[in-house]
Design brief:
single chain; mainly beta; Immunoglobulin-like
Length: 494
């Protein structure tokens, strides 16, 4: 019996030993993160941590962190990373070796699922402005994932949609904006700002007609039969057109078609002799396009960068302010001419005459603007006398022009243009009488010029200023270039 009892005890101990060698260890691997949600903004750092809990004796444990198909072998129980946009499954594979074993056992953790994305979208629209009141704004997500979206128009409440666009109708002209974000991610929305413009530029035309003190472009060229019209736009104009028509008893006939005007030029000088057109294809001269005493309409049409356009017009009439003998004017008049001989040069004397000018400036002073006067006190007078080659200036004489003032005069000869300068200073001067001649100019020429036609005339660069350096308006300057035949020797032998 004793032997049997001992054998039973020994057998029981052996069974217990064998059983303990094949007992499976109990292990729990718990994976967690600090994300706080299963939706994470792209760019956010996520820290994964895990616990390896067991009552068994493991002599070695290593870990494999699975992030989708990527595997990281780690010895620590924590790992921080920044995930790009996408969908993720994360778990930990723990490899443990018991103290009594030589091989590793595998234990898997729980699985975490994440969607990493962005609240932002990329707008498909690239235009900054639209010429329509109906605009479709479309977008796509930055992260490339499928989302529900929230959008807001012009700061209104956000509206939920699964679509990738919003159709905006009947928008008012002006600036608008659309904000869009993905519903799943709590971040700042993306913003698209655009302008709706369905009307062309507003046009304001200014005219200087010299009768009512209208606006002008600074230093006027005082000529009695012209109007300077300038225009301004409420927004930049990429294309400008002008057109002329006349008003008659029979109707309103067009004088020109729509002309493509140079947008860099913001005005036009109108007169009855010559109108210069600054068109996109070049500069064109239109002589005698307009007539005195006729009423015309000037149309201006402007286009903005979206193709919207507006047009407006002004009426105008070209008239002489003065008629008859009282008109203040400046012109040239030939005085004497002698042909050249083999012994002596020929001679031509020209007078620059200014009838009624003194009487005009003696009237009550009337002013258009700080830089312009109708008949201010004359202080400075400058004219240019243009002349043909073959003529040579030999003498310039300045007679007294303004009484009771010191007359200061000078000239500069450029070979084809003679600049005549007269100044009048309020200083005592013994001038009792003065005529209407601004200057006498004597030219000489050789025998080869006898009988030849030469050209003479006053240039368009002239200045008539008062004591406050204002342009004196209303004095008509004759800018016509005249042809003059030089004399021949009568009865010369052939």
């Amino acid at each position: 019996m004793k032997r049997i009892s001992f054998m039973l005890v020994l057998l029981t101990a052996l069974v217990l030993l064998v059983t303990s060698c094949f007992k499976l260890p109990f292990v729990v691997v718990t994976l967690s993160s600090d994300a706080g949600s299963n939706t994470v903004l792209a760019g956010t750092t996520i820290t994964f941590s895990w616990k390896f809990e067991t009552a068994d004796d493991f002599k070695e444990v290593v870990y494999k962190l699975h992030i989708n198909d990527d595997i990281l072998e780690l010895e620590t129980t924590e790992y921080a990373t920044e995930l790009v946009a996408g969908n993720y499954k994360v778990w930990v594979e723990a490899l443990g070796k018991l103290a009594i074993e030589s091989n590793f056992r595998t234990f898997n953790s729980n699985e975490l699922e994440f969607t990493v994305g962005s609240p932002s979208v990329i707008f498909d629209n690239t235009q900054a402005a639209y010429a329509s009141k109906d605009v479709t704004v479309s977008w796509k997500p930055v992260d490339g994932l499928t989302h529900t979206y929230l959008y807001s128009v012009d700061g209104a409440a956000f509206v939920e949609t699964d679509a990738l666009k919003v159709d905006l109708k009947s928008l008012a002209d002006g600036t608008h904006f659309v904000e869009v974000k993905t519903k799943e991610f709590n971040g700042l929305p993306s913003k698209y700002v655009f302008k709706v413009d369905t009307t062309g530029p507003s046009i304001t035309i200014f005219g200087s007609d010299r009768y009512n003190g209208g606006l002008g472009d600074g230093d006027f060229r005082p000529f009695g039969r012209y109007i300077f019209a300038s225009w301004q736009f409420s927004e930049p104009a990429v294309k400008v057109e002008i057109r002329f028509r006349e008003t008659t008893e029979a109707g309103y006939p067009w004088i020109t078609d729509w002309l493509d005007w140079d947008p860099a030029v913001s005005g036009i000088l109108l007169n009855d002799e010559l109108v210069t057109l600054y068109l996109t294809e070049g500069t064109f001269m239109m002589p005698y396009m307009l007539e005195l005493g006729h009423t015309y309409l000037l149309y201006v049409r402007a286009y903005d960068e979206l193709g919207n356009n507006k047009n407006t017009y002004v009426s105008f009439k070209l008239e002489d302010r003065y008629t008859g003998e009282d008109k203040p004017e400046i012109f040239i008049a030939p005085i004497t001419a002698q042909p050249a001989t083999d012994e002596e040069d020929g001679s031509l004397v020209i007078a620059v005459v200014a009838p009624n000018v003194k009487e005009y400036i003696d009237k009550i002073k009337e002013y258009f603007a700080p830089d312009n006067t109708r008949n201010g006190e004359l202080m400075y007078l400058q004219n240019s006398l243009l002349y043909s080659q073959g003529l040579t200036v030999t003498q310039v004489f300045f007679p007294d022009f303004i009484p009771d003032k010191k007359n200061v005069s000078n000239f500069v000869d450029f070979g084809d243009e003679l600049v005549l300068v007269r100044g009048f200073v309020n200083e005592p001067a013994e001038i009792e009488e003065a005529g209407d001649v601004v200057a006498f100019v004597e030219f000489v020429f050789g025998p080869e010029m006898n009988g030849q036609e030469v050209s003479l005339g006053l240039g368009t660069d002239y200045f008539i200023r008062d004591g406050a350096n204002r342009t004196i308006d209303g004095i008509v300057v004759d800018n016509f270039i005249y042809g003059l035949d030089l004399p021949e020797i009568v009865g010369a032998e052939m």
